[in-house]
Amino acid sequence: MGKVTGFKEFERQDEKYTPVEERVKHYKEFTVPLSESELTKQGSRCMDCGIPFCHSGCPLGNLIPDFNHMVHQGEWQKASWLLHSTNNFPEFTGRLCPAPCEKSCVLGIIEDPVSIENIEKNIVERAFKEGWIKPQPPKKRTEKTIAIVGSGPAGLAAAQQLNRAGHIVTVFERDDEIGGLLRYGIPNFKMEKEIIDRRIAILEAEGITFKTNVNVGVNYDVKELKAFDSVVLCGGATERRSLPTPGIDADGVVQAMDFLTQQTKVVFGKEVKDQVLATDKNVIVIGGGDTGSDCVGTSNRQGAKSVVNFEIMPKPPGHRSPTTPWPFWPLQLKTSSSHEEGVERNWLINTKEFIKDENGKLTALKTVNVEWKMVPGERPQLIEIEGTEKIWPCDLALLALGFTGPESTLADKLGIEKDARSNYKAEYGKYQTNIPNIFTAGDMRRGQSLIVWAISEGREAARQVDIYLMGKSNLPSKNMSGDLVAL
Ligand SMILES: Cc1cc2nc3c(=O)[nH]c(=O)nc-3n(C[C@H](O)[C@H](O)[C@H](O)COP(=O)(O)OP(=O)(O)OC[C@H]3O[C@@H](n4cnc5c(N)ncnc54)[C@H](O)[C@@H]3O)c2cc1C
Ligand code: SF4
């Protein structure tokens, strides 16, 4: 544990942000790190609660009390070793994870929980700075070949684990850069892309081959995958959701992912024809999740005239709701750094029409207020409230409505079965599809989710592939009971 009385002596301290008026002028990260002495105090707040619920709160099973203790002791290299024993990329989760671990921290029952995510980020950043993170190529190769399709966090985690087991790994990515949604979905101000490049350099030095601009099933025949002993499909869940609303085809209604991707490409000097810009426009972001928040931050950086956000669900409570008691993930209002930069948020509102002028250009949105009728045993019903229709001037409407599931090209061409939610079918814990040497992990298997889950699934799938190829595996599993899922 940290310090017997640490949690009584020290309050939680979080990283501060640079002032809004400064940070909206650029696309760099804007957090101000805590000092080393403050971080050791934060590590000491971990109170050795006996049953660390944070372990199971974290989808990776990170050894949280152990690395907190090491930070408190000033043993940063040991902390890094512990952290990397369960997490291939703590620099991604330490910046971007919603930290379910903190929501299940026992200290959180009576006080602010331990600042686990920030400690995680500082451990890995210290490790990179000190040069402790070095390529670790395998000592022996097995001659088994593996193709990974998709280079998001699931594909990268699977690749690193399988390479560690000595297999020969090739990662195929259809984009021009490696990283999946980390590269072009998540804005640079939330995670600078050099953070991905730094890790990719390590993976390449360990012996993994990366092939970009290869769209498997489109410009690369799926038959060529037969040359590999095993394949892991990590293509994400990138089928975008739209709205069945009149006027959706107006010039000025844009998918959030197009808007975000274009801006990140421009930040890196890539050519983008006719970039969609929020500059001097009245912007309405439809969808109140992470993607919507990223659109708000990007619109403000581009100099939007006004930024408004719509969400069809009710406003969540400011504190943990009784329906999601500790240690569950709470239904609770989230205010991101992007929201703090300026946005008018509206809940329980539905778009009835995208109004356009005679040239097809978007000019306004017509909305209606709604309520949800709950009838036990039935699906919630959306009821429009009479007399609440409103017109909102708008030049740019960004659709941040999430994704309906994975694209079907690979499933169709390879003959992979899908589940009722259109995800690629493979049992949790096995990751094996109906074609025995083809596995799947991450958003492609579980639907739109989180980075921490993608890394977890990539690691676990890698172990199952290793068992399939070799009959046993020394790769670690968060499943404490060991070789449970023999195939
Ligand atoms: C805007 C946005 C913000 C988000 N913010 C957060 C956040 O703050 N925190 C968080 O935890 N999660 C966040 N998420 C979710 C998170 O990014 C995903 O859950 C995670 O990236 C899923 O990882 P993955 O590896 O399964 O798939 P992806 O990251 O989607 O990667 C899949 C990759 O496969 C490639 N691919 C697909 N088909 C083929 C093919 N046929 N051939 C070759 N390549 C192919 C795609 O180009 C893509 O690069 C966000 C998502 C979005 C859209
Ligand atoms: S990966 Fe996420 S859930 Fe796990 S310890 Fe880090 S912040 Fe917590």
UniProtKB/TrEMBL annotation:
Residues 23-131 form the Dihydroprymidine dehydrogenase domain. Residues 145-458 form the FAD/NAD(P)-binding domain. Pathway: Amino-acid biosynthesis. Keywords: Amino-acid biosynthesis, Glutamate biosynthesis, Oxidoreductase. Pfam families: Fer4_20, Pyr_redox_2. InterPro entries: DPD_II, FAD/NAD-bd_sf, FAD/NAD-binding_dom, Glut_synth_ssu1, Glutamate_Synthase, Helical_ferredxn. The keyword Glycoprotein does not apply. This is Glutamate synthase subunit beta. The lineage of its organism: Bacteria, Pseudomonadati, Bacteroidota, Flavobacteriia, Flavobacteriales.
